[in-house]
Amino acid sequence: MRLFNRFIKDSLLSKILKIILPRFISDFGKVSNLSIDTNSKSIYLTLKLVGESEPVTINISRYEFIQRDGQDYLIIREFSTSKSWLDIAVKKYAPNLQFKIPSIIKKVG
User: Fold this and answer.
1) pTM of the full structure
2) 97, 87 contact by CB (below 8 A)
C-alpha cells in the first residue's frame, strides 16, 4: 500500500509539474517527458529545445522544496544534462537554481 501511495503521489506531482513547467521554458523549448521520484528526491525530464536537433535530458538528482517570505520554491541542488555545455553554463552562471512554485506542489511533494 505504501508503494502504491508513493506511485500516486509521484504521478500527481509529475502531472502538476508538466502543467507548470511550460511557463518557465516556453520561449526556448517544450517538455516531452517528465518523471519524479519523491522518495529519492529526483526528477528526470526530456526537453525539445529550440535549435537542438536531439532532445536534451536533464537528471535532477537532488532537489528540495522550501518556503521563504511566504513563497514556495523548488531548489535544484544537483543535476546533470545530456549536453556538457549546458551543465557547464548552468553551474557557472546559475549555480543556485530556484523556481517560485504554487503551494500545491510543495503540499503534494
Assistant:
1) 0.80
2) no
